[in-house]
Amino acid sequence: MREGERVTPLELFFDLVFVLALTQCTTLMVRTPTWIGLLKGLLALGMLWWGWTGYAWLTSVVDPEEGSVRLVIFTAMAAMLVAALCVPGAFGDEALLFACAYAVLRGSHIALFTIASREDPALRRSVASLGCSTAIAVGLLFLAAFTGGAFQLVLWGLALALDMGGPFLFGAEGWKLVPGHFAERHGLIVLIALGESIVALGVGARATIDARVVVVALLGVVIAAALWWVYFDVTALVAERRLAQTAEGRERNEMARDSYSYLHLPMVAGIALLAVGLKIVLEVRGASLRLVPTAALLGGTAAYLLAHVAFRLRNVHSLSGRRLLCALILLALIPITLAIGVPSLATLGILAAALTMLIVYEATRYADVRDRVRHQGSPAPKPRD
Q1: CB 3.0 to 4.6 Å from 89: which of 9, 94, 98, 305, for a disulfide?
Q2: How far is CA 92 from its chain centroid?
Q3: What distance in Å separates the CA atoms of residue 378 and residue 103, rounded to the nearest whole number?
């Protein structure tokens, strides 16, 4: 087990490669704004997310900047970069290259974990089980590279389910982690995803910066700031402390697996869908959004909030009714805005207003709780909603 909870510069460098992966997934969805396009983008994001989160577990066990480990991490970075470059064509001409890059990414992870587990029989058994599920998943990706259409999507779905399902099906007893380090890695990746949503505004902006572009940019910052607040104001602090206080071993590992490896995926996916919606809002000018972009904009934000509801439920066994209600309202607004023909800019404004009201309510209603959690380091009580 590595000492200390500080995220190293090499880990931050590795995380920045994920920025391109996320950008490429949103690009794929923007280029094909259909349900199939969204599904392809989310499948690619899911595979790359699972590749990334595996290294968050790995670097709790080994120091990524020591000896030959550093070289393997660089190899994994190169593999993720190639896989990210292949995303727009991952279901077409670049399907085989994507599968090869993903195999190197996951294979390097399993190899390092195998070396790290030589003197730990429990960890070695867990790594062997993960290696089996990963090998099957990679094999399905190679098979998918030679197929197309609906069957290819089914194979991708199976590959993702098997790869992510390995730690759930085979137990979590043998894994090791440093709670503060593990939580910080995932917090940083949420921050990176939120930054990508801001980048989406810059990429989508035209050469001429008119009043409408400025308004979209300002509303986009309000939305991204609200999503940042939802995660980092209290939630991240409470979750990290809960993880540290949980008994070491199976209980802690299962909480980390469920709360971070699993539930952070819909958070990141929701942010990616929001970025898709923001780009399309800039493109359509004054027109109303179609169904798929509206679902990406409002539904992606709702998915982010629902993931937070599940995150809190898993960690403190309490339901956040206010965030659940906000998510349901956003989902209900999808057919309403389409039926009325609400302009795209107004839809964006409604989203910004809904999130702002949520933040203002939380900040005022639970001011005392926030103060204790943020400044006194005490665990958060379970406030009534």
Answers
A1: 94
A2: 24
A3: 43
